[in-house]
Amino acid sequence: MIVVQFPSNLGRWLGFVPVLIVVLWLVFTSWYTIPAESVGVVLRFGHFEAIREPGLHFKLPFGIDEILPVAVKRQQKFEFGFGTSGATNPRQFSDEQDREKNMVTGDLNTALVEWVVQYRLDDPKHYLFSVRNPDATLRDLSESIMREIIGDRTVDEVITIGRQDIESSSLVRLREMVKEFQLGIAVDQVQLKNINPPREVQASFNEVNKAKQDRENMMNIANGEYNKAVPRAKGEAEQKISVAEGYKLKRVNEALGDVTAFNAVLAEYLKAPDVTRTRIYLETMAEVLPQVRERVIVDDRITQLLPMMPGVGHGREVRK
């Protein structure tokens, strides 16, 4: 039989073990660290106490204070109708993607709508204590609002021209509901991704869209030709009108000048008819005679010119 003998002071050392455990527990439960992108919600005996900023802090030990970190500076998102692989947020997309994106439009057609909601946690107290599951509530609200807005529009508006209006309307509506439910969440953006008709009619819908695009293209070409031809025609018309107005002004001025000159001559003629008649005759002869090639001046008493001028009538001029 083997007898083990313990040191005589072992019992005294064993008495310090509980004290040591309590001291270590006190040390390790008296401080905590909050990450840079988060804040810490302090619960004392399970009730809300305070919100702490990032950094090192002290608390009441032995589980009296409980710290819940909330990432308030992290941009998060929900994906509806699709899912991105490798997402760090387990609630980023759901397992019912086909059901989420299948929606009925206002004209009783169907469309496959995919969208994204980007949000942040801006009120940790409301986020933790106002609603039991705020993330699931936000997903349900976003899907309900999107279905309501899609249901008020035709399928053509949803797929073509109504994207921006749908995004803005759903963002405003979602913010109102989040504030009303006190989710403690700030919605930053609602962004539509892919919007397509059902797969069964997608080929026909693409043909219709192609026909519309061809029509728009032809209308743009026609408008371009119109915009080129009409200004050119207007310019030519204005040019011709300007030329006609200039010619009109010229003719009127010439006529007024002739009238003025005639009236001046008439006034002089009335004063001295013989003198005026002689002056007019002399001025007229001064203009005409330089244009005649050959001139023969004879006495006005000659009555017969043919024996003397056999060439008269062949380009010669005879004056008395």
Question: Any overview of this molecule?
Answer:
- The protein is about 50% helix and about 20% strand.
- Helix 5 (about 135-150) packs antiparallel against helix 7 (about 165-180), helix 6 (about 155-160) crosses helix 7 and helix 8 (about 200-270) packs across helix 9 (about 275-290).
- It has helices at about 10-15, 15-30, 95-100, 125-130, 135-150, 155-160, 165-180, 200-270, 275-290; strands spanning about 30-35, 40-45, 45-50, 55-60, 65-70, 75-80, 100-105, 110-120, 185-195, 295, 315-320.
- The strands form 4 sheets. Strands 6, 7, 8 and 9 form a 4-stranded antiparallel β-sheet that branches. The protein has a 3-stranded antiparallel β-sheet with strand order 3-2-5, with no helix packed on it.
- It has 4 domains: about 10-70, no CATH class; about 75-195, Band 7 domain (Tetrahydropterin Synthase, Chain A), CATH 3.30.479; about 215-270; about 270-320, no CATH class.
- It is of the alpha+beta class and about 325 residues long.
- Strand 2 (about 40-45) and strand 3 form a beta hairpin.
- The radius of gyration is 54 Å and the shape is elongated.
- It has 9 helices and 11 strands.
